[in-house]
Amino acid sequence: MKENRQITGRIFDIQRYSIHDGPGIRTLVFLKGCVLRCRWCCNPESQEFSIQTMAVDGKNKQIGRDVTVEEVMEEIQKDSRYYERSGGGVTLSGGEVLYQPEFTKALLMECKEAGFHTAIESTACASYQVIEKLLPYLDLYLLDIKHCNSEKHREFTGQPNTLILENAKKLALEAKELVIRVPVIPTFNDTKEEIRAIAEFAASLPNVKKLHLLPYHRLGQDKYNGLGRAYLLDGYPPFTEKEIEPLLWEAEKTGLACQIGG
C-alpha cells in the first residue's frame, strides 16, 4: 500500500518497550489533537493539534512534529522481534487518534500488513462513520468511559458523553475486542455509586468482559506549568491501592473481569 506510506500525521512522541495499553511488549505512538479537555489529562501537550513550545527542565522544547506513515513504520519495525516473542504490537494513543482519522487508518493498515497486533486508546468522541473505517485493521479498542452523567462529564471534560455512550454500544457489536477503561478521578467519579454505574453500563454491552480502573496520578502536572496553564486538580493526592480496592470490588459485582491499571 505504497500510497498509505506517504500520508502525513502529527505526533508528539513514540514510546518503545511499553508493557501497558495492550498485550505484550508494545510501541506506543502518541498523536496530537483532542476534542476533550479533561481536567486531569496527563498529556496536556496532546490536546492542541498545533505544534507548541513547552518548558522542560528549564529549556523550551518543541512539542509536535509532522511525520509520514513510512517514517513511523521504520521506528515501529525496529522492535518487531519483541512483538513476536511477547504477543505485543502497536498502540495508537494521544490526544485522540480519531482527531486524525486518515493518518490513523493508514498507520493501522500498514501495521496489519506487517503482521502486528494493533490497538487504539480512544474516547470514541467522533462520528461512528469515522470509527467504523478503522475496525477492519484493529485488534483491540481500549475505550475510555469516564462518567455516566452527561452534565458532570461536560463539566470536567468540556463535552457531553452522549455520543461516546452511543458509540460504545455499536463498538460492542462490531469491534474484535473492546475493553472499557475508567480513569478514577477525585471529585469526578471516585464514589462507589459512580463506578458501579459505569461498570453496569459496561456489563450491559455485548461481548465486553473486561474493565480497567486507572487511578488518578499527577505525573503530568509539570507539563501544565511548562505550557503556562493552570492545573485544575492541584492539591489532590494520587490514589493509593487501598483507596481504589473498594471501587474495584464494586465494579466486580457486575460480573466483569476487573483490574487496577491497564
Considering the chains and any ligands shown, give keywords for the structure:
262 residues, alpha/beta, two-stranded antiparallel sheet, 9 helices, 33% helix, globular
Short summary:
With 262 residues, the protein is an alpha/beta fold. The protein has helices at residues 69-76, 80-86, 101-113, 128-132, 150-157, 162-174, 192-204, 221-227, 241-252, and strands at residues 8-18, 26-31, 52-56, 59-63, 65-68, 89-93, 117-122, 140-144, 178-184, 210-215, 257-260.
Describe the structure.
- 41% of the residues are buried.
- 33% of the residues lie in helices and 24% in strands.
- Helix 7 packs across helix 9 (241-252).
- The protein has helices spanning 69-76, 80-86, 101-113, 128-132, 150-157, 162-174, 192-204, 221-227, 241-252, and strands at 8-18, 26-31, 52-56, 59-63, 65-68, 89-93, 117-122, 140-144, 178-184, 210-215, 257-260.
- It has nine helices and eleven strands.
- With 262 residues, the chain is of the alpha/beta class.
- The strands form two sheets. A nine-stranded mixed beta sheet has the order 5-1-2-6-7-8-9-10-11. Strands 3-4 form a two-stranded antiparallel sheet.
- Helix 7 links the parallel strand 9 (178-184) and strand 10.
